Amino acid sequence: MYFAALLARTEDGWEASDTELDDVETLSDLTDLAREASVDEDTVLVYIEQEDAWFGVVRVDGEEDPRIYVSDASAAARSSYGEILLTDEMLGREPGAEDEIAALEQLVDLDGTEDGEPERPAPAAVDQDDDAPDPDAVPAGPIGELGVLADLGMSEKELLTLQTDALAEIAEAVGAVEVLESVR
Fold first, then answer.
1. How far apart are CA 38 and CA 58, in angstroms?
2. Which residues, including other chains, have CB under 8 Å from residue 34's CB and lie 6 or more apart?
3. How far apart are CA 136 and CA 114, in angstroms?
4. What's residue 116's pLDDT?
């Protein structure tokens, strides 16, 4: 089960709203949702959590690129909403590489046989170094911008030590506890 909330900073403090992510398929969609909640292009925090498995914070400041922190990348990678937050840049991958490979595989028959020919047996596996890192592997643990909330009252160290009920602690650090309780 997921919980998502928007915290939008205004000149009078914070405004909170829970939000449905059913129509959100990309980081751009999520960023647009945050910008719609913004007042005068002020800071908006989008918080997403999956039942104490992982949480993510996306910070949108006006028209700047979103800043993202995810508490456990490997857990988030197994989640449809987590995959939205784990950008190629964040994971150290070439942007769009997976999309390009999938498109090529659809266009080209990569098994090396002509249509109607039986498939050739696969070549014997070549011993590979078991210690070689998998370039597509998602790292376990936190990933992203640790200082995403530093100027709002939560240090990098505090962010890294959040476990259960992270949203309450984030809301306390940024001064949004009362408005958050109204949407929980």
1. 13
2. 6, 44, 46, 58, 60, 66
3. 30
4. 54
Residue with tokens 């449905």: 20
CA pair distance 162, 166, nearest whole angstrom: 6
Q: Is 116 left (phi over 0), alpha (psi -120 to 50) or beta?
A: left
For 57-75, the pLDDT digits (tens) are 999 999 999 999 999 999 9
> Which two three-digit tokens encode residue 105?
């595989």
d(CA 164, CA 106): 43
Question: What does the CA dihedral 66, 22, 41, 168 come to, rounded to 10 degrees?
Answer: -80
pTM for the full model? 0.76
Residue 82: its H or E element: helix 80-85
| Residue-level pLDDT at 9 | 92
Cα–Cα distance between 95 and 89 in angstroms, integer? Answer: 7
| Residues whose CB falls within 8 Å of the CB of residue 62, separated by 6 or more in sequence, listed in order | 38, 41, 42
